[in-house]
Amino acid sequence: MTRILALVLVAAAALPAQTPSKADLLRLTDEAEAAIREGDWAKAAQLTRSLRTAVEDARNKSMAAAGTELVEAVLAWLPPDTETVVVAQQPFSILAVDNTKDVNALDGARTYSVMMLTAAEKQKLYPSLLGRTLRLAMLGARRFGEEPEETRANASKRSELGMIEFQACAVYAFTEPVAESVFGRPPDESVMGYRTWTSRTAWNEKPVVYPVSVSLLKPDLLIACNNREFLEQMLTRMVSPAQPRALPADLPEWKLLDRTAPLWGITHYRGGGHAVELMGAGKDIGQIGMTAEFGVASGGARARMLSRSDPWKELVDNSELAGMVRSRKVSEGVWEISIDGNPQAANMAAFGLMAMLGFAVFI
Amino acid sequence: MRHGMRQIFCVALLAASLGAQTPSQAGVVTNIEQLRAAIEDNLLSSAAMLAAKLSDAVQKQFDASLVRDSALRVNEVLTWLPDDIESLWVNQAPFTINSDVSLQLLYYRPIQAYSVDRLMAQNGGSIYAKLNGRTIRLVIAAARKTDRRSHTIPDAMMATDVACFYFFTEPIDLPAPDESLAGRPVWRTTAIVHRREFGRGVPATREDGNWIALARPDLLVLANRRELLSEILQRVAEPPKTRALPGDLPEWTHVDMSSSFWALRHYTAQSKPPLEWRRFQAGGILTPDEPSGVTVRFDANQERLEILYLSTSPMIQTRGPEDAIFAIDQPQAGVWRLTSDVKKSGPWPIQFAFTTLGFEEYR
User: Could you give the CA distance from residue A275 to residue A164 in angstroms, rounded to a whole number?
Assistant: First the structure.
């Protein structure tokens, strides 16, 4: 008993540092099976939890290099006026919503990364993908707060509530090929040679519907966009890479970002942009851009903003978050916030930081 | 070839041992065989999904093993409870205390919320925080002298006598007790509760006294009346010949003790809500006239709630939002059945069930 516990502890302690080998995984599997056959469910539960973590870690490490390569490629596909990029690069499974489980900031942020997938096909595509694993979800967005054509033409459909307007394209890479049958119908058209399904989808509980197009780039690679021009720009740049690229490498925000985080985001504000509105009138703090990392430090989150003064003061002073949120001045004009990984802070971390990245929800 | 031989041998070994296993244990062993094959074939994405499935299945087995004695514990508690107890519920879904998770975050886990609400509130949360990380395998709660006036409108539970029994998986440590009752250590605790009187907009705040006893090294008993706790502890010390809710009550024939949550209430003449109150609540809630008792069961796997009213009178039916939440039928003469798919309807039907049992929100 002591030997097995020691093995589990050693395995758990070693996980962050090195990938468990096949032999390690098989040994843990044997230990778990022995406990199951003995009917020692306490030991089996502990061992299978360790095994799950070890296998996920091995999977994640095996996919990391290909994921980094794909992120670089998609950055080149995004048009130069892209303001925000969100990258969920740690593989995760598409699961049905389960409100009975505790969530962390990473879980919350992932829901933003898959928003184009959840909206597609009148919200029917996502359920047909349940159980599949995404190795990368990468979302690029622009023109936050810009009124879409549909409400310009029909003012009665305007709504101040719900998620802010924006144009976005997202690339989703699966661990296995996705059969066309998940769409449940033949494609509507071919866009630049790619089979494409388009549906008009209600968006974020607003009275207006938007066209969301999904193209199958490869058997395991989808692109989903809520704007046709954005889609065509992506596909064009995919075939013929062009300069300049989105969020160029010399932007100072990149130096603030830890790109090893399971999920990260970066934004370069367009002329102050929506962040001014979020922080309230008359509180222009001279913000330039922001980075955010989710899943760091036991499921917590961290963000850094380039601005003249501290953008995090109100969050840190919020009594409901006492002790869970800390901020500091990293250097002149760089302000950092760290949010604990506990469930109490998780909602705020995802909701608040994603809002600052552009995806604000007005309630 | 060697690989193939080894697999055949494993299958033969598995088949030989299946006869001695429970079907669920066999299912878990099948999962682990699939996982081992995926690891050996370097199919890490499949392996990760199988490891997650295995871990969940083993955790379910572990949880089930923790409450294998629940029928015995319930019988024991029934002998400890005074004869005039009229309502009892049993939550046999084990959970681990996470003091970072507030009551608000338990909104979608109403049974767990009702299980810990009162304990969580004591001494500003300090008792609950001391129990952080401990697993409660079984919660049994009982009530008497149910306040007939508060039957219909969920509110802070003040008038009713309540006792909660928390069975932990291991002995627990608490600081030095305040007193001793029947030879058991007892802590006097308080909680701040808010009660909104009908017709008054501003809730009144008051300090509510409770008593907690360590009846056994792994069993806490919490009561809101010192005399009730004293009575229980006397009966623990010297088991009496009588018990609460005797086995010949008709409600017992409708109780399903295999459900993850089950309950029964046998109305007393004093606690039965008067007709005018039941008609008043008909603005939202359905009950039959003159019920003699009620049973509740919730199947956590199916997320299905069933409430049975024992009544030979007709059902008061009104139009209201609950019409879509509960399906109502009469499976046999004298029994009205309300069923609800909680996955679709959310936690409200469970909250209603607790109210029907005479239990209301504590704070």
Answer: 12
